[in-house]
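Researcher: Structure for this, please.
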Amino acid sequence: MSQTFQEIIATTAVCLVALGPSAAVAEQIVVATTGGAYEKALREAWFDPFTAKTGIEVVTVAATNAEMRAKAAAMVKTGNVSWDLYLQGEIQAASEQHLLYAENLSAFCKEFSTHVDLDADACNAAGVRLLSNSTLLAYRSDAFAAAAPRTWADAWDVQKFPGGRSFPDFNDPWRVMAAALLADGVSPEKLFPLDIERALAKLEQIRPAVALWWKTGDQSMQGFRNGEYVVGQIWLTRAKALKSEGLPIAWSHAASFLVGDRIALIKNAPHRENALKLAEYWLNTPAAQAKVCEALSCKPPSGEAVKLMSPEARADMPSTTDPQSSPVIPDAKWINDNAALLLERWNAWIQQ
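Model: Predicted structure, token format:
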């Protein structure tokens, strides 16, 4: 006996109610990441175990950090928000502009203020700390028969350390300028405020040797794989991923800057409560943090997570206690206050 259209609709509705809301539409979270090895580590250690425990699917989209900031701003301004969480560099997350598009998580963070194993700023208004990491000098160890490059001055010495170079060009030029100034003899204590013109003059010296001005983490890795360059400024997470692939990649903490990543909750996120559950899972699960930083040589926000990492991975982490290889800690306020000027001067120089 055939059913009328109205009877079919009514029957379907009854079935969906009986099965529950998750049967009709699977619960999910949309997270913007930088993709590649970084996302792979997050998925294996954090996203997939979270899904297995809660049934909430973590959907990812890939973009550069600059693209994420622009997209988040556009979504909030237009009221058409499709993401829930997105990665934000520690310096940008400290800016006033950040909280125009990201939800203030101060209330959420109160729950974690008494967790003694977490860093004091593991959770703050700007977001949840994922990890601390270095931007540093990396090199192919098979390219040099004797001594290897150790300092930014070595990176500029193409006579002693011949081969192609690589530096980032992703709308955040402070770290390239800072490396240039250190190569030019500026002491770390006097690095900020950056002398922009002196930095660009020093960069002019290395420009002929630069084979790639990379824009994404994955792009920064490819030239090391194919031998396009042998020395470069790269994130430690990416250098570690290359080493894990079996490539002869090494790095120097004596030429490094301490940076970090936060996960930010976009304003009016469509799956806000699920997103906060994912953030809570991260902060409450040292094993997940340890597994990510085991793969990426980063420092997790939990002291318990550090204890779970292997001695080898802990040795690779950026350190602020070793006077011979402590990373430079950038002046976030100065960088944010001068971000427009830095980018204007950088773009004018790089496009010459």
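Researcher: Any notable elements?
Model: The chain has two domains: 5-132+261-315, 134-258+322-350. The chain has a mean pLDDT of 90.
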